[in-house]
Design goal:
By secondary structure, the protein is an alpha+beta fold. It is 49% helix and 14% strand. Strands 2-1-3 form a three-stranded antiparallel sheet. A hairpin with a 4-residue loop joins strand 1 and strand 2. The radius of gyration is 25 Å and the shape is rod-shaped.
Length: 86
């Protein structure tokens, strides 16, 4: 995995100039590139599959948290379903 993405797990894209500098903002990268012979600014995108896997893991974690919360609430609040109400 790319070191920038490892260090900043919440970003999905950053911009790299020809001299090897990296920027979160495309405009910052372009401004820096003005001083270089090669003014190329390359967007570096996180792989879609990695994002999808992280989202799926997050959803599974949330689902498990909800399931546990429901179990705790059901166990903590017993109801008398068999009793007839008047």
């Amino acid at each position: 995995m790319d070191k920038i993405f490892e260090k900043y797990p919440k970003i999905n894209v950053y911009y790299k100039t020809n001299d090897g500098n990296s920027f979160f903002s495309e405009s910052d990268a372009k401004n820096h590139a003005k001083s270089l012979d090669n003014k190329l600014v390359q967007p570096i995108c996180r792989e879609f599959e990695n994002i999808k896997v992280k989202e799926e893991k997050a959803l599974e974690t949330d689902k498990n948290s909800v399931d546990e919360s429901i179990k705790v609430n059901v166990q903590a609040k017993p109801t008398n379903i068999d009793k007839k109400t008047k």
